[in-house]
């Protein structure tokens, strides 16, 4: 089961876990466990979710393998000219996708919060917890793939092609090219920025609830602010 594909596809389609659960008929908790890679679902469950996302079941089942040393010798061993490094496209695509998903949901969450504030609607129960959970899953995806990349670089089994020349990736990220590092850093920054945004949304929602409660109390006890009117009358009487 490709948990990362499921997580990113759900984010791309701007679906909450609950929304996907309602569309697929699969429990939201089950979807959460699938995205975290702690549940090995039945084929029928995968099929239901795939249909809800407009995918083929094979697209959620066909997880790409991690970098392998198959056919390659270690950096510390002699290599023939026929040896070629394992390309890191899959790892980079996963991290970039996580950053893209973070950027997209941040935009969606801002619009959702602004709309709720304008319409005076309270934030849905547990909404910010769901946001935090999604951030954690994106963080896990990014960190796990970055660690896999660093481990593969340390083993000398992952490389890039520059100018038609295959080069093994240095285990020291400081030596990586700007073209490689900048997209990875940008993706990580988008993910790392989510908690601050969630805190802001949470604070605004709290202030909105407090304001709503205060207005309800004033209406219940029929409290009006007549201070200005009273002062105006007193000024006339005093004059």
> End-to-end span in angstroms?
83 Å
Shape: elongated
Strand content: under 5%
Structural class: mainly alpha
The helix/strand series, from N terminus to C terminus, equals HHHHHEHHEEHHH
Textual characterization of the structure:
There is one protein chain. With 239 residues, this protein is mainly α. The protein folds into two domains: 1-63, lambda repressor-like DNA-binding domains (434 Repressor (Amino-terminal Domain)); 67-238. 65% of the residues lie in helices and 5% in strands. It has ten helices and three strands, in the order αααααβααββααα. The protein has helices at residues 3-12, 17-24, 28-35, 43-53, 57-61, 89-119, 127-155, 178-192, 194-220, 227-238, and strands at 86-87, 158-162, 165-168. Strands 1-2-3 form a three-stranded mixed sheet. Strand 2 (158-162) and strand 3 (165-168) form a beta hairpin. Helix 1 packs parallel to helix 6 (89-119), helix 2 (17-24) packs across helix 4 and helix 6 (89-119) runs antiparallel to helix 7 (127-155). It is elongated. The termini are far apart. The model is unreliable at 63-86 (pLDDT under 50).
Structural topology:
Layout: H1 3-12, H2 17-24, H3 28-35, H4 43-53, H5 57-61, E1 86-87, H6 89-119, H7 127-155, E2 158-162, E3 165-168, H8 178-192, H9 194-220, H10 227-238
Parallel strand pairs: 1-2
Antiparallel strand pairs: 2-3
């Amino acid at each position: 089961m490709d948990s990362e594909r499921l997580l990113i596809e759900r984010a791309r389609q701007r679906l909450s876990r609950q929304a996907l659960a309602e569309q697929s008929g699969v429990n939201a908790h089950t979807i959460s466990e699938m995205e975290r890679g702690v549940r090995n679902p039945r084929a029928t469950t995968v099929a239901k979710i795939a249909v809800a996302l407009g995918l083929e079941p094979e697209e959620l089942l066909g997880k790409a393998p991690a970098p392998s040393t198959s056919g390659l010798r270690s950096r510390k061993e002699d290599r023939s000219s026929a040896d070629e490094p394992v390309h890191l496209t899959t790892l980079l695509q996963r991290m970039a996708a996580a950053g893209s998903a973070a950027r997209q949901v941040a935009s969606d969450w801002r619009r959702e919060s602004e709309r709720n504030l304008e319409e005076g609607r309270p934030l849905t129960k547990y909404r910010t917890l769901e946001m935090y959970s999604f951030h954690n899953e994106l963080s896990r995806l990014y960190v796990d793939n970055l660690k896999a990349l660093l481990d593969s670089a340390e083993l000398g089994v992952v490389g890039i092609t520059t100018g038609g020349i295959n080069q093994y990736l240095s285990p020291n990220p400081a030596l990586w090219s700007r073209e490689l590092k900048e997209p990875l850093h940008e993706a990580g920054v988008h993910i790392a920025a989510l908690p601050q945004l969630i805190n802001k949304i949470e604070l605004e929602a709290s202030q909105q609830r407090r304001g709503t409660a205060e207005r309800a109390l004033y209406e219940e006890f029929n409290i009006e602010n007549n201070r200005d009117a009273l002062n105006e009358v007193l000024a006339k009487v005093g004059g």
